[in-house]
Amino acid sequence: MLRSLARGLQLVAPVAFRKRVASFSTGDGGGGAGGAASGRRLVGKVALITGGASGLGKATAHEFIQNGAQVIIADIDSELGPQVAQSLGPSAYFVPCDVADEAQVADAVDAVVTRHGKLDIMYNNAGVTGPVYPPSISDLDLDKFDEVMRINVRGVVAGIKHAARVMLPIASGSILCTSSISGIMAGLGPHPYTISKFAIPGLVKSAAAELCRHGVRINCISPAPIPTPMSVSQIAQFYPGLTREQVAGIINRLGELKGAHCEDADVAKAALYLASDEAKYVTGHNLVVDGGFTCFKNLSFPSQDQVV
Ligand SMILES: NC(=O)c1ccc[n+]([C@@H]2O[C@H](COP(=O)([O-])OP(=O)(O)OC[C@H]3O[C@@H](n4cnc5c(N)ncnc54)[C@H](O)[C@@H]3O)[C@@H](O)[C@H]2O)c1
């Protein structure tokens, strides 16, 4: 119907209006922002991505660069990090950073500001699952719990703190964090991981309450399972002997949305939207990328023969 409307409009409409209808009907975002139409939505922006050496962070680094950003990968993996940065080309470089150590987060932010004069986008994405065993909270090792919290929560808070330190004075910036569907529904991961991911939307809202008064936005993304090195190695523990591909296949079949599975590129595109000026009025938001997984639960009705 839109196509026939657009065809009809070609006969009468002014050129500018025809272009807008055409971009709407082809689903390329339209939106009005020149950067969006050209697919270069982050031109001139400088982005720091923690955990950028692998998985979702790496895919987001790629997406940001495709859209014109300069990307700094901050990762604890000093072997993989520089290799990934090199593979991403001249718009990427690596800084070593353990997000559990606040001084290293501060240094990474300062290094970016020294080199580029600013930090536009801070993506606090680094995270770990922590131990899968023991499964019971009654056996929880609190030292292991602290380790997960130090990276997944304290590391994110440190990222927000030091990004805010350089963004507040210029009243501009976009901060992103990675939560998970494990931060929406319990029982999907080990206790420390679940607890840590529940914290993220809360601390995003807490920070948004202050930062919005200064023109700085902060949002988080909650993805469904995606076969990255992290999730594959976690799930592989339940399936000894399976190949990486087989485990990835299991993860890809966990979703609910027919005809699709959650990919790292889906998170990268969500991050691109939230980081870009297209989301200029979006803050304190949790963008759930889960194909509907967390929006319903079926009632477990007994079958006829189970009813007594
Ligand atoms: N893959 C999934 O299914 C999934 C789903 C929902 C949320 N997440 C979240 O996405 C984020 C990225 O996970 P991923 O799946 O891409 O995993 P990944 O293991 O592929 O990548 C994580 C990266 O973080 C780095 N890292 C780990 N600890 C660090 C630290 N202390 N300091 C700095 N860097 C550190 C690793 O070296 C690695 O490069 C995590 O926060 C994770 O909880 C993942």
Walk me through the topology.
Blueprint: H1 2-12, H2 15-25, H3 34-38, E1 46-50, H4 55-66, E2 70-75, H5 80-88, E3 92-96, H6 102-116, E4 121-124, H7 142-167, E5 173-178, H8 191-211, E6 216-223, H9 229-236, H10 244-252, H11 264-275, E7 286-289
Parallel strand pairs: 1-2, 1-4, 2-3, 4-5, 5-6, 6-7
Helix pairs in contact: 1-2, 4-11, 6-7, 7-8, 9-10
Bound molecules: nicotinamide-adenine-dinucleotide.
Nicotinamide-adenine-dinucleotide is lined by residues 50-51, 53-57, 75-77, 97-100, 125-128, 151, 155, 178, 180, 223, 225-226, 228-231.
Question: What report would you give on this structure?
Answer:
- This protein is α/β, with parallel strands linked by helices.
- The chain is 45% helix and 12% strand.
- The protein contains 11 helices and 7 strands.
- It has helices at residues 2-12, 15-25, 34-38, 55-66, 80-88, 102-116, 142-167, 191-211, 229-236, 244-252, 264-275, and strands at 46-50, 70-75, 92-96, 121-124, 173-178, 216-223, 286-289.
- It has a 7-stranded parallel β-sheet, with helices on both faces.
- Strand 1 (46-50), helix 4 and strand 2 (70-75) form a beta-alpha-beta unit.
- The structure holds nicotinamide-adenine-dinucleotide (NAD).
- Residues 50-51, 53-57, 75-77, 97-100, 125-128, 151, 155, 178, 180, 223, 225-226, 228-231 line the site of nicotinamide-adenine-dinucleotide.
What's this, in brief?
This protein has 308 residues and is α/β, with parallel strands linked by helices. It has eleven helices and seven strands. Nicotinamide-adenine-dinucleotide (NAD) binds next to helix 4, helix 7 and helix 9.
